[in-house]
Amino acid sequence: MIDSPSISADGRVIASALPGSDYEPPRSGHWFTVSTYSMTDNKWTEYPGLELRHGPVSISPDGTKLACVARTTTNGPSLFRILDLKTGKITVGQPPSQKSNIAISWSPDCRRIAFDADVEMPLDEPPVPLVFVMDAETGVVSMIAKGRTPSWSPSGEWIAYFSYIAHIRDKHGWWSFTGADGISLMHPDGTDSTFIHKFDWPMNIKPVWSPDSKTLLLTSFPDDFTGKFDIFMLDLTTRKLAKRFRHPPTIFGWARAN
Question: Domains of the chain by range and CATH?
Answer without folding.
Answer: 6-210 (2.130.10.10)
